[in-house]
Amino acid sequence: MFSLFLEQLLNGLQSGVMLFLMASGLTLVFGVMGLINLAHGSLYMVGAFACAAVAAWTGSFWLGLVASLMAAAIAGALVEMLIIRRLYNRDHLDQVLATFALILIFSEGTRWIFGSFPLFLSVPDFLTGTVVLGGSFEYPLFRLAIIIAGLAVAVGLFLLIGKTRLGIRIRAGEADRGMIAALGVDIDRLYTVVFALGAALAGLAGAFVGTTQSVQVGMGEPVLILAFVVIVIGGIGSIKGALVGSLLVGFTDTMGRFLLPHLFATFLDPSSATAIGSALASMLIYIVMALVLFLRPSGLFGTAA
Amino acid sequence: MTMNREFLINSILAIALVAVPLIALGMDEPFIITLATKVAIFAMAGVGLNLVLGYGGLVSFGHAAFFGIGGYAAGILASHALNYEPIMESPFLIEGTTQMIIIWIVALIVSALVALVIGAITLRTSGVYFIMITLAFAQMIYYFAISWPAYGGEDGLSIYVRNGFPGLNTLDPISFFALCAVMLAIAMAFSAVLIRSRFGLALQGARQNPQRMTAVGIAPFRIRLVAFVVSAMITALAGALYADLNRFVSPTMLSWHMSGEIMVFVILGGVGRLFGPLAGAALYIILEHLLGGVWEFWQLPLGVLLLLVVLFARGGLVGVLAGERKHV
Which residues pair with A131 in a beta bridge? Predict the structure, then answer.
């Protein structure tokens, strides 16, 4: 029981780290450009499909991973230059609709090219199997690798935002876009770079998660909505908030699904305990979100909405 | 002049909605009547959303929740009536029913209560937060419907015989269409009266300048909350009709794709215009039927069209035809 608990805890961490890769891009794009991007889940899907297709073609998971980053970043940059750029000065309704239209185009286009059947990605050989983490507790090596890789990317992102010239420009863009344009920063290029960066992170998450699950059209949508919940909890525009929110949502969701049926089983018969427990568990993160908003309407780390 | 043109377009839309199924009846094409019924129902869902989206300026991305609640009201009540199982025995007896009128009342009450709770939380926020939180609450209800096994879970719930309406054979396509069209007309008339009333003016004022509304002593929050609840009730009623049209209800009615589609009806037709949802729903169904018949991946050109409308034709179909963009 205890090792099962530990395993769920690590699964929660893994889901939180993957959510952070999605949510950080979403929150950056909103913070810098003021854009709500529903098509972020499509970029996640593009990454997963690129990884699966290239890995199947070349036989190398690593090339697939590179392809997922490249494909998502290129798709992101193209979409930004062709369409998204026209939406920065529009109201949120137009942004929602245009990016909803982009989802239709991406999903249906992917279905057209790859068909409706899910693709499968296999784990590279040396990452298969399990690893012993103290005593008799074993955990799949690949999941552990994803957690470490995700954390490394998160640290890299914080360094990028905090320490580099690009990061300074991104933060300046959040604070006052008119001023940095006046100081001679090419604002159009900055926006394209930020959008492509967010897209690449989403694509990477898609490739990672696609390896543990299956790669199929529509895979990005549930993750997108979870990422929305994350950034609403964390405060829109805040990377730190995205990190805290991701971990909170990842742990709450995983542990809720694991613990609630057990909890209800202590005073209900097993079948209704499972039914009520799992129904409540699926709602748990939204209840957490409602609570956070009730206490802080602009999220944990958000400035006033 | 433009006002007259919009009136003309509206009249053509209304006449077409009635004439097309009648012609289809004459030509013995029941499928066309079903399509027209679908247009009327989707338009009604859009009329509900248009109240908050168009007139209130509140971008609710969670109206599928109310559409689905209406649908499940029809499905759950009908299934209990069919199995002769009361829904609840204590403290008082509640039995299932196959009477549409009772189903509608239940749909109205349940959706109003849910909208009151969701609205009270979401309307504390604004802008992007409001969009995302309405979406999140709708997803919450969606996942609840999927994981709750009593009413079919992911598989949905069939309504074996379409529910009844006094003095009407609802199984007859044209009669059911007439019922839906009358309900749509009532919803539109109600909406037209509402937006011209003191309440409607306050709602539009709260969209244009909430500070000024507060200054004249009208709290935008309460006005918006009432509008949100009324809007949810209209959409729920459409959902109950939609479940009866398909004789089936499933979590798909609650999904965020549905929320997006209801929003697309309103935008394609023209935001904040009385006949916008009808024009949008009709265009959507016609496109689905025409493109879907030619190409399996019809949502791809639909997406491109929607993108073009958002980027270049901001008044929607009615706006383009009437030649004037309404400031919303």
Answer: A139
B248: in domain? yes
Residue type, A151: L
Domain count, chain B: 1
DSSP secondary structure code for residue A140 in this structure: E
Instruction: Using the predicted structure, report yes or no on whether residue A64 has a pLDDT greater than 80.
Output: yes
Complex ipTM: 0.84
Residues in B closer than 8 angstroms to A278, CB to CB, are: 147
Domain range summary for chain A, segments of one domain joined by +: 2-119+164-295
Interchain CB distance below 8 Å, B306 and A305 = no
- Chain B within 8 Å of A102 (Cβ-Cβ)? yes
Number of DSSP helices (H) and strands (E) in chain A, helices first? 11, 2
* Within a domain: B328: no
Does some domain include residue B184? yes
Q: Do A93 and B311 touch (CB under 8 A)?
A: no
> What residue has token string 């009136």?
B7
**Rounded to two decimals, what is the model's pTM?**
0.88
B306 touching A (Cβ < 8 Å): yes
Q: Which of 115-174 (A) contact B at CB < 8 A?
A: none
With a CB cutoff of 8 Å and minimum separation 6, the contacts of A50 are: A64, A67, A68, A70, A71, A72, A203, A207
Q: How far apart are CA A272 and CA A279, in angstroms?
A: 10
State the residue range of the domain holding B164: 2-322
